């Protein structure tokens, strides 16, 4: 039953991936700026330009270029960087793990922080904690990521000298230094997520706290603590799971800013450099991988939702 | 019915909600008692205060509802209104249990039925989860759920309405309560399922001697199940008596009105069903004197000035009316 459900969901993913490749490929054609000119400089002769075009396959019809690119992409070959000559898939492999570590940490902060603020706000209504939670819920969505990042650096790195302002160590290379380096970028990445989850979960909890089944729980003699954690929270989390799935995508996008501010060698930094250099094969590669990741995360979200809510028929 | 000592005694229960427009009194000075093994029906329209009364016993009213200091609800000698939340929790689900109107929304959709029954047992008895699940299985069998072993792991949405209400009853019975409050237990169910559930309640009452407070607006349910009836209107009890007496000899015009509005299969057919004229008055603008005066065909001048109190009649009914329909005379109190 569940396997069938999984396969059916997977079938939805395939056309989505196909459309993604189309969009990614055509986006690059729409972006102004000729990569060949960018590579050769303004003084290049017409012969030189034509030669490089031919070399890169840019003189072929667009459809042919697409199918050629797609065929290679399916086989794991996303071409070479037209700037450095490095294989795009190799560059992606190196940076993907860095970005994933950052995103996962950021999402853990978001989920833990969001649940903490939402639950305390419900548990102690109209207390100072409730007001702090509600304040956070508004502030987090209003304040842009780059500003959070800079404030954190000024305060915790420059003033207090507690945490490093830049640099990244992988979790496998050194858990201690990894933690130290990831706290500030992780938190910058998570603030918006904390705010969104707090607001959404808080209103969802307010609803489920008044639900008939919570009244039933009270009539059985359960405590307020148990009523919230065992009866209200699990039901309130259901709609929030979808939000968390969407937040993953947002966080992935925000890594572009965060990685550049904290000098973290991830995909975000890679793509910004590639854009500056008009390294269009590299940009294509990064954007493709990011979109695929978002699709995969949404797929996982669907599965988690189905596992959490027994009412969903497989 | 069995013994004469009341298990629950509600004295001068006055619940009020302070609001900017004035005080709302959902329950205004009601007193009644329930004996061991007795089924008492609390009857009234929506907004008559029956749910507030029952939730007061459980201590589960919204925090906006306050009680006057002279109110008391004595359960086995303890005043439930004076108990701390922690002490009340020991009574809820253990000594007093409750079943609710809509079994779909009253069961937690993300927990299996067995776990929901076992939770109550684990909260009040010193048993392991495994033992509690075994007891839960017994309870499901007792309330007549077929194939109970499999149902134990089913979620509420996998059960039919009647089965859900049976599961709800199983939760309520989990710790052998002495008093069961059933708030409109059949309203959300089909007629055939209704009578099954009512029979089940009757059987359980006979088997275990549980006292039941049955809250309903359905007089058919009352006739089928209850021993004694309390009729509520605008937060007050207007008539009280044995079920036979109430049905044969309603004393209050409101009770009579409720009876007349039941469609009957016997006797001469009516073209139009008799309904009580008018609507329930706004709780902020209750009429002076008897609250029923605006809708009563028998109202006299006196009714507009003084509110009547419950008086016992020779038939045994107690009626709060200046012009009761029973003409045998008043017996005092």
Summarize the structure.
By secondary structure, chain A is mainly alpha-helical. Chain A folds into two domains: 2-74, no CATH class; 96-276, MetI-like (MetI-like fold), CATH 1.10.3720.10. Chain A has helices at residues 2-30, 35-40, 46-56, 62-74, 88-123, 128-142, 145-159, 175-209, 212-220, 224-261, 267-276, 280-308.
What fraction of residues of chain B sit in β-strands? Answer: 15-25%
Task: Please count the beta strands of chain B (DSSP E, at least 2 residues each).
Answer: 13
User: What is the number of domains of chain A?
Assistant: 2
Low-pLDDT stretches of chain B are none
Q: Which strands sit side by side, in order, in the main sheet of chain B?
A: 7-8-9-3-10-11-13-12
Instruction: Note the gap between the termini of chain A.
Output: 6 Å
The gross shape of chain A turns out to be globular
Number of helices of chain A: 12
Radius of gyration of chain B over all CA atoms, rounded? 21 Å
Could you tell me the radius of gyration of chain A in angstroms? 24 Å
The CATH class of the largest domain in chain A is: Mainly Alpha
Order of helices and strands of chain B: EEEHEEEHEHHHHHEHEHEEHHHEE
Shape assignment of chain B: globular
Per CATH, the class of the largest domain in chain B reads Alpha Beta
Count of helix runs of chain B: 12
């Amino acid at each position: 039953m569940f396997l069938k459900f999984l396969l059916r969901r997977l079938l939805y993913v395939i056309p989505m991936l196909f459309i993604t490749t189309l969009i990614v490929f055509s986006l690059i054609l729409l972006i102004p700026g000729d990569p060949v000119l960018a590579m050769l400089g303004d003084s290049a002769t017409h012969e030189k330009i034509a030669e490089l075009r031919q070399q890169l396959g840019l003189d072929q019809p667009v459809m042919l270029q697409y199918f050629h690119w797609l065929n290679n992409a399916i086989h794991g070959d996303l071409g070479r960087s037209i700037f450095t000559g490095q294989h795009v898939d190799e560059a992606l492999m190196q940076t993907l793990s860095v970005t994933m570590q950052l995103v996962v940490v950021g999402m853990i902060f978001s989920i833990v922080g969001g649940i903490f603020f939402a639950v305390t706000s419900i548990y102690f209504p109209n207390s100072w904690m409730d007001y702090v939670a509600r304040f956070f819920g508004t502030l987090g969505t209003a304040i842009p990521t780059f500003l959070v990042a800079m404030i954190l650096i000024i305060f915790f790195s420059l003033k207090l000298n507690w945490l490093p302002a830049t640099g990244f160590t992988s979790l496998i290379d050194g858990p201690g230094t990894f933690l130290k380096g990831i706290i500030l970028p992780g938190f910058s990445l998570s603030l918006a997520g904390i705010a969104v989850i707090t607001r959404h979960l808080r209103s969802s909890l307010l609803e489920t706290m008044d639900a008939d089944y919570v009244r039933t729980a009270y009539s059985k003699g359960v405590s307020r603590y148990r009523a919230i954690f065992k009866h209200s929270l699990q039901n309130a989390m259901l709609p929030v799971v979808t939000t968390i799935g969407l937040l993953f995508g947002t966080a992935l996008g925000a890594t572009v800013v965060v990685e550049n501010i904290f000098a973290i060698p991830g995909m975000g930094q890679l793509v910004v450099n590639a854009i500056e250099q008009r390294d269009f094969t590299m940009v294509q590669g990064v954007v493709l991988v990011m979109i695929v990741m978002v699709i995969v995360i949404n797929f996982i979200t669907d599965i988690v939702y189905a596992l959490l809510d027994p009412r969903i028929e497989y | 019915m069995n013994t004469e000592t009341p298990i629950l005694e509600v004295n001068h229960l006055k619940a009020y909600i302070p609001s900017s427009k004035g005080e709302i009194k959902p329950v205004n000075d009601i007193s009644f008692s329930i004996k061991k093994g007795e089924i008492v029906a609390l009857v009234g329209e929506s907004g008559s205060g029956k749910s507030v009364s029952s939730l007061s016993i459980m201590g589960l009213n919204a925090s906006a509802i306050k009680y006057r200091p002279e109110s008391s609800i004595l359960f086995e000698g303890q005043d439930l209104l004076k108990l701390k939340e922690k002490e009340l929790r020991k009574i809820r689900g253990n000594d007093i249990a409750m079943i609710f109107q809509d079994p779909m929304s009253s069961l937690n959709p993300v927990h299996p039925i067995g776990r929901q029954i076992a939770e109550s047992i684990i909260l009040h008895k010193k048993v392991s989860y495994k033992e509690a699940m075994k007891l839960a299985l017994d309870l499901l069998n007792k309330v007549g759920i077929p194939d109970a072993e499999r149902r134990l792991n089913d979620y509420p949405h996998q059960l039919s309405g009647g089965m859900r209400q049976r599961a709800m009853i199983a939760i309520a019975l989990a710790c052998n309560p002495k008093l069961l409050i059933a708030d409109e237990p059949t309203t959300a169910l089909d007629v055939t399922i209704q009578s099954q559930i009512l029979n089940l309640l009757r059987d359980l009452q006979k088997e275990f001697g549980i006292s039941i407070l049955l809250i309903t607006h359905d007089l058919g349910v009352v006739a089928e199940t209850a021993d004694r009836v309390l009729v509520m209107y605008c937060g007050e009890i207007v008539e009280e008596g044995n079920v036979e007496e109430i049905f044969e000899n309603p004393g209050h015009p409101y009770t009579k009105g409720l009876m007349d509005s039941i469609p009957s299969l016997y006797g001469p057919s009516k073209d139009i069903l008799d309904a009580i004229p008018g609507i329930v008055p706004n709780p902020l603008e209750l009429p002076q004197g008897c609250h029923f005066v605006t809708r009563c065909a028998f109202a006299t001048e006196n009714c507009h000035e003084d509110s009547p109190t419950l008086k016992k009649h020779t038939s045994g009914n107690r009626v709060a009316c200046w012009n009761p329909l029973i003409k045998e005379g008043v017996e005092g109190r």
